[in-house]
Amino acid sequence: MDVTHILESLNDEQREAVTLGDEHALILAGAGSGKTRVLVHRIAWIIQTMNISPYSILAVTFTNKAAAEMRGRIENLLNVPAGGMWVGTFHGLAHRILRTHYAEAGLPKAFQIIDSDDQLRLLKRIIRDAQIDEAKWPAKQAQWYINNKKDEGLRAQNLDAQGDFMEQQWIDIYKSYQKICDNSGLLDFAEILLRAHELWLKNPSVLADFQRRFRHILVDEFQDTNTIQYAWLRLLAGQTSKVFIVGDDDQSIYGWRGAKVENIQRVQNEFEKMFLVRLEQNYRSTGNILRAANKLIEKNFGRLGKKLWTAGEDGELVKLYTAYNEQDEARFVVETIKQWIEQGNDRKDCAVLYRSNAQSRVLEEALLMENMPYRIYGGMRFFDRAEIKDALAYLRMVASQLDDAAFERVINTPPRGIGEKTLQAIRAQALKDGVSLWDAMALILEAQAVPARASKALNGFLEIINSLLELSGGAGLENLLLAVLEQSGLVEHYKKEKGEKGRARVENLQELVSAVKQFELDSLEAGVDEEFEEMDDLSVFLAYTALESSNGQAEIGDDCVQLMTLHSAKGLEFPMVFMVGMEEGLFPSERSVEEVDRLAEERRLCYVGMTRAEKQLVLTAAEHRRLYGREFYPKVSRFVRELPQDVIVDVRPRAQISTPISRNTFIDEDALDDFQLCLGQIVRHMKFGDGVLLNFEGKGHHVRVQINFYDAGPKWLVLAYANLQPV
Question: Is 492 within a domain?
Fold first, then answer.
C-alpha cells in the first residue's frame, strides 16, 4: 500500500510519532511544531496500514473550530468523507453519546441543553423563590460553584459542608437547581460530561460497547484537560483501547478554570509502555525568539522537558523598551506599528498582548488618536464592557436624572430587590404623567403605590443617587467615581463573581478610576475644547467616554491591529508581537508571586505569548504605571530578567530613561519663561497642592517633572501646562 502521501511532508520526529505501532503514545508537541498535522496523519496512518475502520477511531479536541479543521484535513488526506467519524470536542462527543443512550442516562428523549445565560436565570429564580439573600449568595457565584463541582465530578450529595453554614447554603442551592433540571430534562454545559461519565459507570454493558468500538483514542491539547475529562477518557480507554495523547506541559495556562497540568504526567503512569516522542522543531518563530523562550521555561520545575529549535534564520533580536509610563509605552507601540506598516507590512500581522483586560484602555486611546484600526480579539473595547457601562450609568444619573436609559440600567444593578413588576409600575406612571422614570419613581413612593419591600428598595436607590448628587458639587471627578463604586456596591458585587472573570471586572472598574485621573490631568494641562466650554467636568467626561465608545472596532477580516489578552493568544501566531506591561506585580501578577504553582503557570503564559511571534518580538515595561486606580513604580518583570542577554536588545537603556538631577542642577532654561526650578524645591499646584520636585525628563517646552505631592502622592506633569508656583 502506498503511504507516501501520508509521510512525505513530515520531519523525522513527526514521522516517528505517526508510524508508531498499535501502542500507547504521548506526543510532547512544542509550540509551532505541527501537532495538528501529526494528529491528522496519525489517523490516516491507522486507517491505511492497520485495516481499522474510520468509525472505530475517536479524536477529541477542545474547540469546534479545531474539530472542523481536523475533519477537513482528514477528508483531504484520504479523499473520503469524515462526517460520520467521531471527531469533536469533549462536550460534543459526550452529547452525541447521551442522545443515543438517553434512557440509560436517566434523561427524557427530548432533553435540552441550556446555555450559561439560561443557567444563570434559573439560579436567580431559585434563590429568589427560596427567599435567600442574593447579596450573600449571588447567582453568579452559585453558577461558578455548581459548574466547578461538576467539573470535579462531584454531585451535591457527595459534598459535606462540615458544619460550615455558608457552604451548606451553596450545597442546598446546588440540590434545588439539579432537581429542577432533572425534572425539566435540562442539561447545563458541565452536566453533559458528568452525565456521560455516570452513564458508563452505571451501565457497564454500554461502556463495554464503546470500548469495543473505539480501538484508538486520540486527544489534542491534553494539558488542558480537567478532572472529569480525564476520568471520562480513562474509563473509555479501559484495558484494550490505545491512546495517542498530544499536548505540551509548557503550554498549560488554564489552571484557573480547572485544567490539571499534572494529567499529562499522570497519564504516563496509568498506561503501560507509553512511548514518548518529542516534537521540538518549530516552524513558526526565528532562532532568537526560540532561544529566549527556551531559557525562560527552563526555570520551571517538574517539566517533561524539550527544547525548541528551528532550521530557519536567527532573525532579529528580541527588543525591550522601558517606558516612562503607560502613555509612553502605548505611544512606542503605535509608533513601532506605523514603522512596520511603512515597510509594506499589514496591520493585521501585529498583535499586542497584555496580562489584564484593563491594560487595553491606554492602548486603545493611542490607536484612536492615530486613526489606526484595531480589534479586541475575543473581547470588548474598554468602555463597552458591562461593568464599565454600569459605573458610567451611575455617573449619567448624577449628571441628569432625566436619563431613562441610565435609570433602567442601574436601578437594580447590583440587585437590590427591585423586580420587573415594580419597574413596570414606574414605566406606566412615567407614561401616564409624561415625566422621567426618576420623577415617576418619586410619585410612586409618595403615593405608596408599591409594596413595602419594593418601596424600601426604591428608597435605598434614591438615597444613593441623592448622596452622589450632593457630593458632585465640588468633590472632583475621581472622588465622585470612587463614591459611585463604593455606594453603589458594584465592586463588591463583582468581587462575588468567582474566577478570572470576576477579578477582571473588578480590575476594569479600578482602571476606570485611572481613566478619570488621566482625564483630569489632561484637562488641567491642555484646557477644555471650545465645544465643551459650557459643560461641567462630569458632562465633559461622559461625552468623552461616549465618543470613545462610538469609534467602533474594525470588522473581522479587516486589516487592523489585534489587541488581546495573553490567554486569548493561545493557538494564534503573528509576524510581529508586542508583550506590554512586563513588570513585577502585573506580569507575574501580585497574586502569583508567593505561590510556586501559580508562578509556574504565569511563566508558562509568558512562554506562550513569546512563541506567538514569528519574526519580531517586542517586550515593554514602564517605570511608572497608573493602573486599577493606583500608582505603581514597578521593577521590570523577572521573566525579562530570566531571558538570555545575548538575544535581547534594549532599545532604550534604563540608565537613560530619566535624568536624575543633583540638588543644585537647574532644569533647562528654555522650559520656563518666568522662573527656574531645582530638585528638592517645594512647589504648589492648583489641584494637587504642595509637593517636592523629585525628577525631570525631556527638554525645552516638553519637559516633564515628577512632583511628590504631600496629599496626592507622586505625579508626572508637563511643566509648560502645570502652572507650578514656587513656595
Answer: yes
- Residue from 13, 151, 188, 220 carrying the catalytic annotation: 220
pLDDT digits (tens, 9 = 90+) for 395-405: 988 988 888 87
Task: Quickly list DSSP for 226-246.
Answer: -HHHHHHHHHHHTTT-EEEEE
Catalytic residue among 73, 517, 612, 625: 612
Give catalytic status of residue 221 as yes or no.
yes
State which residues form the domain around 529: 382-551
Q: Judge if the upstream peptide bond of residue 414 is cis by omega within 30 degrees of 0.
A: yes
Q: Does residue 63 carry a catalytic annotation?
A: no
Q: Is 220 among the catalytic positions?
A: yes
Q: Quickly count: other Cβ atoms within 10 Å of residue 648's Cβ.
A: 17
**Residues facing 247 on adjacent strands:** 28
Among residues 13, 14, 35, 242, the one annotated as catalytic is 35
> Any catalytic annotation for residue 612?
yes
Last-in-domain residue among 501, 522, 551 = 551
Count: domains in the chain: 5
Determine what percent of the chain falls in helix, strand and coil, rounding each to the nearest 5. 50, 15, 35
Find all residues with CB under 8 Å of 208, minimum gap 6, and list them: none
Instruction: Choose, from 14, 141, 178, 251, the residue flagged as catalytic.
Output: 251
Active site residue 169: no
Instruction: Please tell me whether residues 172 and 144 are part of one structural domain.
Output: yes
Q: What is the CATH number of the domain that holds 169?
A: 1.10.10.160
Query: Among residues 221, 329, 403, 497, which one is catalytic?
Result: 221
Catalytic-labelled residue, pool 19, 36, 89, 510: 36
Which of 252, 281, 310 is a domain's end point? 281
Q: What is the pLDDT of residues 701-722, one digit of tens each?
A: 557 777 877 777 777 777 767 7
Q: What global pTM score does this model have? A: 0.75
Catalytic-residue membership of 178? no
